[in-house]
Amino acid sequence: xxxxxxxxxxxxxxxxxxxxxxxxxxxxxxxxxxxxxxxxxxxxxxxxxxxxxxxxxxxxxxxxxxxxxxxxxxxxxxxxxxxxxxxxxxxxxxxxxxxxxxxxxxxxxxxxxxxxxxxxxxxxxxxxxxxxxxxxxxxxxxxxxxxxxxxxxxxxxxxxxxxxxxxxxxxxxxxxxxxxxxxxxxxxxxxxxxxxxxxxxxxxxxxxxxxxxxxxxxxxxxxxxxxxxxxxxxxxxxxxxxxxxxxxxxxxxxxxxxxxxxxxxxxxxxxxxxxxxxxxxxxxxxxxxxxxxxxxxxxxxxxxxxxxxxxxxxxxxxxxxxxxxxxxxxxxxxxxxxxxxxxxxxxxxxxxxxxxxxxxxxxxxxxxxxxxxxxxxxxxxxxxxxxxxxxxxxxxxxxxxxxxxxxxxxxxxxxxxxxxxxxxxxxxxxxxxxxxxxxxxxxxxxxxxxxxxxxxxxxxxxxxxxxxxxxxxxxxxxxxxxxxxxxxxxxxxxxxxxxxxxxxxxxxxxxxxxxxxxxxxxxxxxxxxxxxxxxxxxxxxxxxxxxxxxxxxxxxxxxxxxxxxxxxxxxxxxxxxxxxxxxxxxxxxx
Length: 590
Known about the structure:
Blueprint: E1 2-4, E2 15-19, H1 23-46, H2 53-77, E3 81-85, E4 97-103, H3 111-122, E5 131-137, H4 142-165, H5 172-175, H6 180-184, H7 189-215, H8 220-223, E6 244-249, E7 265-270, H9 281-296, E8 301-306, E9 309-311, H10 316-325, E10 333-337, E11 341-343, H11 356-366, E12 379-382, H12 383-386, E13 398-400, H13 402-405, H14 410-420, H15 444-454, E14 458-461, E15 469-472, H16 477-496, H17 509-519, H18 525-540, H19 555-570, H20 575-589
Parallel strand pairs: 4-5, 4-8, 5-7, 10-14, 11-15
Antiparallel strand pairs: 1-13, 2-3, 6-7, 8-12, 9-15, 10-12
Helix pairs in contact: 1-2, 1-19, 2-17, 2-18, 2-20, 3-4, 4-7, 9-14, 19-20
């Protein structure tokens, strides 16, 4: 049995939308620049270099691709749109949310990092009775389970401390590394006493996790603290092991913190792995969590976060819920995407891993075209949209009536959940094809978002004033190349598949342009390399590829040159646009 969440009147908007200013001037610029592009292509077609046909063909194709890329990019630039939320207007009865966290390798993703992320999420400013946390450990590591267990113990002290003093950020590793609160609250003796006590508990937790990680073994005295450690009495192979599901904190008021307040549900999940069955990497892990969480708590909203992306804003969930509960537009929204922000990036961000162009420019533009792509982390989904349901204007956010289900038997639920996390459960079922995260693509997140939007759902990009999440980005060449290879091949796979943005259907033209820009991103290196090599070769050999500057330019050319140069100087960080501008600029002044 379900009950609808009806909380606001038709006039009580929970978010508003505002378009960026200066659009008229931008449209003038767009018109002038587009004229310049056609002028450049016209010049190429009417000035064929018969004596150097190969060079002419290469430079023409490169400039044509730059032009197409620039046109696709206008999907982001045409109407940047910003949202404002009003969490103070939310009703007291908020919808439940299941939070899914993924990790896979205790060596690349240290257990202490996982515990820190989990604790930051557990301290959200939200009704704890409405929250359930599920951690997927695809490595099946006892060290990770130990870290989650230690986090569950420390959370009984950390959560009431955060609520009592309203601390930010609520990632303990970050919070205790700064003395700002201690300095600001110096006059409050009660705060200092509790701060010191909680910090001591945190350092104790950190030491226990570090010790187990260093020894590659959990001490016997710790293993006696929870029956779940028995799963590792025999060796667990990360690529071949039984399903492991352990309830570490029982929700619904059964387990309480040190002050007697109820705790949110916390469940450790390591799905079954067999080498003879495909596991589909992160997409498969999230689909397993989706099924397990649906059995145990079945919240209508689902947040997924990577284990290296800790919460930096305790009210992020309230901002997200504003979109889903909005009486006018809420029923259209399939997911809300928060930006990814990173710390520890090299000076000047040598590898561009801050992805600022995407999250500070382009995603705002997608808000005008039914929203951004799914970025794989920091996303709150409507469970129905993930589970294959097409958009229906009559759909309402529904919550299971807990009084009908009765008291939970956590042991029975854990046993039943193991069947949902088995390696053969998806055989012959639509998971990964029609429901859940999509399989068969290296960028399962973008692929899934495209499928959801093709079913009629809209998405929203929202960046709160205080960053919602902070994570870790690659800081060396090898990791950066691996990441970019996965992105580039996966995005191109989408364009060449049956889900090509131009054929998938139910997408706005602006959406098609944005998805085309991303899915064809990898091919952009070809015209860039062509420009990098052909122009110097032509210059060294005295081959004229552009008209001479002594040919008196008419006023139109001067205006176009000025437009290109102004765009180049005003947005130097927009590399894709600027290289197209370089070609246009050279056309008029060289």
